[in-house]
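subagent[fold] <- orchestrator: predict structure for attached chain, return tokens only, no commentary.
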Amino acid sequence: MFKHSQFNHLAQLPGEDSWALVNFAYGTVSRLDAVQKAVFDIAPTLRPDVPLMRKWLRQGFVVDGAFDEVEAVRERVNRFREGFASGASKRSLEIVVRVTSACNFACPYCFQDRRGGHMAPEVRAALVRFVERRLVSGRHDHLGVEWFGGEPLLAPDVIDELSAAFMGLAERFGVGYSAMIHTNGYLLDQDMVDFLEARHVDAAIVPIDGMGEAHDATRHLHGGGPTFDRIMGNLRTIQTSMFVNVRNNLHAGSLERFDELCEMVDGIARENGTNIRCSPSRVKPTAAGQARGDTTQTITEEQYEWTLARAGLPAKLRAFEPVLAPCPAALANEVHIDELGYLYPHCSFYSVDPACAVGNLLDEGGGGSDAWITALSARAQRLCFPDDQPKCLACTFLPCCLGGCPVQRLQMGEPDCPTALFDPDSYAIDRLQP
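subagent[fold] -> orchestrator:
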């Protein structure tokens, strides 16, 4: 006895008596005419030697009636996750380094607790030892670094020292090296760009909250001073080979002039020939912001989708391919390390509470790098698959999102269904195009 796959999706082709059939677990797609569609509807009753049936079994559209498809997805995810911890496969060691929790901005919705302070010398030394021990293990072929804060450009001395150490280790162990930075852009002038490029930083993410006064209302200095003109002036005048992603934080105050900001950023790119792009990001409430009395009015999912559609972005954001992890937080080779030395899964929102840490770099008695990686792997197992969500386990799109944001799922008790999963018909039809 056979059954249709849980992960099938059928979409009728516009103006045709034909269908696009896609399977989100295998990534397969097939065109069905009216006759084939009628046969497919009764496929579970057919013999396995029927030619069409052989094809559908091979492509995963039809499966054995006793086959547990959800368990198969879970096993595939676990094999991928455990491959790193066991040393069976080499992967990049990706570390987010929060060099400081200090910031020159006072954004009301910020998820950080604003405790302030730069990474101390003893934590830097312990971090370098951690990276060295990971590279000695031979399990990595690349070292990737994300400079993070607070505002990381308030601590260029920390970036300088650690960059030299990391680049030296990468050269010593014969692995690749790359770095990027998350910065509010206020200090990103030409001198700072030159400083970063000399330390192999090849990308920057610069958040902007809309145009002019809208931005200044939420992304302002301590005391309320404006920042928009300074940041855009920096972007307009710098000459850089870095890729700069101007991330437009969308909330009620920044939504209306999203198009205008994108046009401004495109104009800057044309004027100075730099690789600058505007992309959207939806602002969500944060616990730290709410504790500070944040009143930033967020937008609905529908408003966000409408904005993406208006900008022609949904086709770029749709993602219906099977994945092996919902996000970097579910991988043991992706680590967020704060300025106090605490180690977390790779998630900015997750890494603001030491209670969520798996250890501290200064606690050498805790077992060291192998124990921390093992702990991260155990944490990743909880984050990687939505076993706590019957809704997810019964969903057609499970192989594509694995429950979406795992932190949202665990903290809020329900999945935050990804924006990407809104137009499977278009995806299925597009897959048939040559």
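orchestrator: received. Logging for downstream: The mean pLDDT is 89. The radius of gyration is 24 Å.
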